[in-house]
Amino acid sequence: MTPLFPIPKNHAQRFVLHNEVHARAPFILNLPVRASHLALLLSNEEKLSERQHLITLCERFGVVPPEKDADHFAAAFNSFKIRWEQHGEFSTYSFYVHDTPTDIFSDAALKKVPVDWLSQLPGQVIVASHAAIIFAEDINYRETTEDLSTLSDYFEGNQVIGSKVTGGAAAVFTDFRIHVDGFSRFLIVNNALRSEQAGRLVQRLFDIEVYRVMALMAFPIARKLYPALNKSDRQLYSITNAMTMPDNNDAELLDELTTLAAEVENYISSNHFRFAAASAYYQLVDQRINDLREVRIQGIQTLGEFLKRRLEPAINTCESISHRFTSLSKRVSNASQLLRTRVDIIIERQNQGLLTSMALRAKMQLRMQQMVEGISMVAITYYAASIIGKITEALHVLGLKVNPELIEGVSIPFIFIIIYFSTQRIHKIIASTTE
Which of 306, 31, 302 has its CA nearest to residue 172? Predict the structure, then answer.
């Protein structure tokens, strides 16, 4: 009996993370075998309904359905096996049948699946493919022969692409075309495949078919964005060229730059995911091709050679458009910073001129205030002396021997001195309270 050790309690995700390496394991296939594969793009609502649709199939055949939060499922039904996987953007269904009919691709594995259930699958088909693993003697295939016309018949006379794979244990052939039934085809000639190898090989071929199509979903977007990119590039050139002119309107140029920056960022944010996904899918295609361990068959292209020649230009176009938009965004940002700096300098100069004008105006107001203050002192002295003159006249009328005019005249300098020092005192009080 295995001893139990007194170790600390397990992390909540320990077993889930540990068993992740065993998730989505390929089927162990009994040869010969036929397979059909569907990849469907789904919305969030359709992702919720497809699990219930799968449960309906399980209930029909009395099979234990997938768990509530499962994102993959595999089971054997009466006459076929099914493998379901839910990915970020799409879901895949693989159907397997263990026999080899006379017409390999006409009598596909998908014919074993209930028609009513199949027709109600949620989503839109992005990839549909058939595959068949057969023995070399069943089709009179010989590795030494250079005549591949018999293989071409399985692909409606199209040019065949293929190679030896998995160390020569099998040979894979396809034409990478969608045939009249709406499916692409893979013909796998078995030389010495083991059951485990067969499951991995079929899964890799289906992955290549799905991931190459998903990688190309960014290509139409890249071609659509190309005119918009050139237009934005020319607009930026016009703005930066206008910035060098001495009589330009910086405020208008800044508004144009802001609008252009918003448009470019909108293009980037709207399509960043698609371009990033294209790069990731292309890496997966390259990885799956490397996993095949292809060996050339004289006279035909290998799968990797064919796909690289067709896929790489499209992926490079997508990467180029994405890189150019990112570069354009940086250039717009740099131009905006330069223009804002220049506008700030102009505004600062205007502010300095305004402050100088305000200082001069304040100085003039001070001079006028001082002049008015001097006039006010004279007026106050005049009225104070007049009051004193009136008082002395009244005293003279009452019988006092005083000369009103003399007293009024003598009081003027004294009144002026008192008013002057009173004003200076007020100035000192105001100065002390504002400091």
Answer: 302
Q: Looking at the structure, tell me whether residues 50 and 175 fall in a common domain.
A: yes
Burial category of 393 from C-beta neighbours within 10 Å (exposed 0-12, middle 13-18, buried 19 and up): middle
Cα gap 6→424, rounded to integer Å: 94
**Spatial separation of the C-alpha atoms in residues 292 and 285, rounded to whole Å:** 11
CA distance 181 to 36: 12
432 assigned to some structural domain: no
Using CA atoms, how far residue 300 sits from 148, 164, 221, 394, in Å, is: 9, 11, 32, 138
Query: Which residue range is the domain that position 376 belongs to?
Result: 365-427
**359 occurs within a structural domain:** no
pLDDT tens digits, residue range 38-63? Answer: 999 998 888 888 988 999 999 999 99
Task: Tell me, yes or no, whether 57 and 196 share the same domain.
Answer: yes
User: Is 243 in the same domain as 335?
Assistant: yes
327 sits in which H/E element: helix 303-397
Are 76 and 192 in a shared domain? Answer: yes
Instruction: Reduce the secondary structure of 177-212 to three states and give it as a string.
Output: CCCCCCCEEEEEEECCCCHHHHHHHHHHHHHHHHHH
**pLDDT tens digits, one per residue of 174-195:** 999 999 999 999 999 988 888 8
Asked whether residue 160 falls in the same domain as residue 283, the answer is no
Please name the amino acid found at residue 285: V
251 burial type by CB count under 10 A (0-12 exposed, 13-18 middle, 19+ buried): exposed
Of 292, 319, 353, the position where a domain reaches its end is 353
State the Cα–Cα distance between residues 362 and 354, nearest whole angstrom.
12
Q: Are residues 326 and 253 in the same domain?
A: yes
> Are residues 46 and 184 part of one domain?
yes
Counted domains in the chain? 3
Contacts of residues 353-358 at CB distance under 8 Å and 24 or more positions apart, as own/partner, are none
Do both 177 and 306 map to the same domain?
A: no
145 pLDDT tier (thresholds 50, 70, 90): low
Instruction: List Cα–Cα distances, 417 to 121, 247, 380, 381, in angstroms.
Output: 108, 61, 12, 9
Which structure tokens are listed for 286? 């390259």
Q: 424-431 — which CB contacts under 8 Å span 24+ positions?
A: none
